[in-house]
Amino acid sequence: MDRIDDIEGAILRNRSVLPGYFLASIRLRRPMAGTRPGQFIMLKVPSAEVFLRRPFSVYDYGKSVLSILYRVAGIGTSALAAAGRGEKVMVLGPLGNGFTQLPGHAPVLVAGGIGIAGIHFLWTKVKKRSTLFWGCTTSSEAALLRKIMSHGPHISTIDGSLGCTGNVVDLLGQHISEMKRPLQVFACGPEAMFPALRDLLAGERMPCQVLVEERMACGLGICFGCVRKTVDEIEPYKRVCKEGPVFDLWQISL
Amino acid sequence: MADLSVNLFGKTLRNPVMNASGTLGYGTEIEPLWRVDTLGAYVSKGLSFVPHHGNPPPRLWEEKSALINSVGLQNIGLERFFKEAFPLFRERQTPVIINFFGFTEEDYVRCAGAIRADELIVALEINLSCPNIKEGGICLGKRAEGVFSIIRKVKAVTGLPLIAKLTPEVTDVVEIARAAFEAGAEGITVFNTFPAAAVDVERMSLPIRGGLSGPFLKSMALRAVADITSAVPVPVIGTGGVMDDRDALAFLMAGATAVQVGTATFVDPYAIPKIIRGIDAYMNGHAIGRLNQIIGRSRAQDRAV
């Protein structure tokens, strides 16, 4: 059984990297158990207004410092965005299953918008031998992470202001036929990405793991609130926090 | 160390704190954080005779200090529960209360009749809040006659003690509790979640209808515990809004023999062990040696009803 800890942390940095997008670093009082890319944490946001914890993908983790990248979307992320240096939070994790790499397969990383938050930690581990595709709405969104841009990822923007015009699956489609097999795709992004990926990859039935999002209450698998429908006929609803958040693209119902 | 043990239907529980059904999965999920034998008893996720898929997402909605859930009783069914989940409680020697439900009276009876007695099974807890598909989706628990009828039928097929878990959505909860008692229920749990809905104002949609839980329930559940324990001579398990040790103590002092903790565990996964330690600390601080010196204590000055 993998260890899970609930650890107090203090916010080191919490800065807006773009209007509406924040990157927060949290120093934990003691190290969290070994964290795999694709796993997440449940964060107790420092605000009495926010009742439940909130799930965040691990954007980066090392030396007891945890980073999360988030878009302000509701009361939880709004309250978190307002939190300053030194404020105390509780971090429960690491949670969920994380990505599993197939030996010998070159990783193809595909992120749609803020989906980069779920892909980044994997990218830090495999960047030399992987190809990153990142689709954004505008070039300002892609400016989000200069560090990634310096590695020359394939970029697309919906408005055409940077890279190819279109979404990230279109972009992937332009390159994938020339890439050396065997490949394994890792994807995170808006729901519409998943059927598009399936259409693109169905011919080869390429191995593809997707990181999905769902509202959560516990993060531990005890409430059965965050399910995703799968093709399993016996137990179609799988817990995103426990059996996920990473699922085989070919197993989820779209 | 104070003695926190309580006797329930002839079995000794090491403390009066349980999880509320459906808020601690199958038990195994919490073990990376704390062992299930921390609990006075584990209350199973609501079980049906055959596995049940539950509701499609979204199943959750947060409100101010409250949670609406529409899980829809997803469960692996009795047979798999005993095969896959129960061995943990055997290994940990943890008493178990089996919560069960049905969509028809026949479902309930078939389920209860299939549960064999075991030294670890303290009781069955019947979920009376679930929609009865033969009566147009109205739940049995809303009417005293419905409660009386189903409990009679279930008692006819099981020798295990039966706890009736009541819905709050009734005109007079004491009348319902009395009907459960008269039909043969040996205990009462009050109560289940409140029916609720959420509106997404940005999308102008109504994304969820479900059961509302959270700390606001405490005062209403306390009232039900105090009223039922005054009127019906069976042990009452209090649940609803127990967030910390003082909430749990309030339920015990109102007359509850035990308390169930639900939503609090989602906010703080260590809520249950903290509550148990807090009760112990309170008893030590007040030089109270045994838990039965607390149970119903507030009612000595009860001028009520």
Q: What fold name goes in the CATH topology slot of chain B? A: TIM Barrel
CATH superfamily of chain B: Aldolase class I
Tell me the count of domains of chain B: 1
- Give the name of the CATH superfamily of the largest domain in chain A: Nucleotide-binding domain of ferredoxin-NADP reductase (FNR) module
CATH fold-level assignment of the largest domain in chain A: Rossmann fold
The biggest chain-chain interface is: A-B, 32 and 37 residues
Provide a compact summary of the structure.
Chain A has 254 residues and is an alpha/beta fold.
Describe the structure.
The complex is a heterodimer of chains A (254) and B (305). Chain A is of the alpha/beta class. Chain A folds into two domains: 5-95, Elongation Factor Tu (Ef-tu), domain 3 (Beta Barrel), CATH 2.40.30.10; 106-211, Nucleotide-binding domain of ferredoxin-NADP reductase (FNR) module (Rossmann fold). Chain A has six helices and 16 strands. Chain A has helices at 75-81, 116-126, 139-142, 146-149, 168-175, 193-201; strands spanning 5-18, 21-28, 40-44, 54-57, 60-62, 65-71, 88-95, 106-112, 131-136, 154-157, 164-165, 183-188, 208-211, 227-229, 237-239, 246-248. A seven-stranded antiparallel sheet of chain A has the order 4-3-7-1-2-6-5. Chain A has a seven-stranded mixed sheet with strand order 11-10-9-8-12-13-16, with helices on both faces. Chain A has a two-stranded antiparallel ribbon with strand order 14-15. Chain B has one domain: TIM Barrel (Alpha-Beta Barrel). Helix content of chain B is 30%, strand content 22%. Chain B is built from eight helices and 16 strands. In chain B, helix 4 links the parallel strand 11 (162-165) and strand 12. The radius of gyration of chain B is 18 Å and the shape is globular. At the A-B interface, strand 14 of A face strand 5, strand 6 and helix 7 of B.
